[in-house]
Amino acid sequence: xxxxxxxxxxxxxxxxxxxxxxxxxxxxxxxxxxxxxxxxxxxxxxxxxxxxxxxxxxxxxxxxxxxxxxxxxxxxxxxxxxxxxxxxxxxxxxxxxxxxxxxxxxxxxxxxxxxxxxxxxxxxxxxxxxxxxxxxxxxxxxxxxxxxxxxxxxxxxxxxxxxxxxxxxxxxxxxxxxxxxxxxxxxxxxxxxxxxxxxxxxxxxxxxxxxxxxxxxxxxxxxxxxxxxxxxxxxxxxxxxxxxxxxxxxxxxxxxxxxxxxxxxxxxxxxxxxxxxxxxxx
Length: 282
Known about the structure:
- By secondary structure, this protein is α+β, with helices and mostly antiparallel strands.
- The chain is built from four helices and twelve strands, in the order E-E-E-H-E-E-E-E-H-E-E-E-E-E-H-H.
- The protein has helices spanning 72-82, 129-137, 204-208, 249-281; strands spanning 9-11, 32-44, 50-61, 90-96, 100-107, 115-117, 122-125, 142-152, 154-159, 165-171, 176-183, 198-202.
- The strands form two sheets. Strands 1-4-5-3-2-8-11-10 form an eight-stranded mixed β-sheet. The chain has a four-stranded antiparallel β-sheet with strand order 6-7-12-9.
- The longest helix is centred in the last third of the chain and has 33 residues, at 249-281.
- The protein is globular and about 50 Å long.
- The model is unreliable at 1-7 and 234-282 (pLDDT under 50).
């Protein structure tokens, strides 16, 4: 029997790019609980710099209701499937800590995958919930049971989509922060679309310390969504190659002639039988 990875095991991040959509159900025999968090944080990058980033964090836990635990190999396979691809101002991490943890960090302009900011200073924060629900639906038995969205340097904040709890305008050394939580245990419904979940007025600290910029939402540069990959077409036969299963026009005509001739013979035979029966009756 496979054994879960030990606490805080760092696993390799996907080195390749996924080329095909996963074939569900994934991890049969597992009951998977998924928890999602999006937050602003500073991070040490692979380039040995320290940057403000937006972190997209997924925790996948097995072992519920006597199901199987997630192993390190399975966690790696999930990362290779759902966390592949590369982009500027982006990197990913994968680890095991009593569960499979997938982290994606977005810096600089890549952060606009999660926030938009207009000239009036109104900021909106979103989460790629459509993709995350696609991930959940690819398992035999999985659900997202909690979602948390946090943002700093925001004031006069409010949440959309009926969260189960929220905390607004908490004071920080420079500015404020706000958070919204959705937990199914508290009766909340996890949002399913990419509509903004947290909004408010941006503060000067966002520009001074976090190097934020005005701009609209952009498409998430990475990871690659494998559900959008179009299956490759089967290779066409080379020019001049013969296909024994394909019928040539002459073969089709020959088959048609044979069928037509056979049908005519049957009609003649049927007419003769009717005539013979009529003679015997008379």
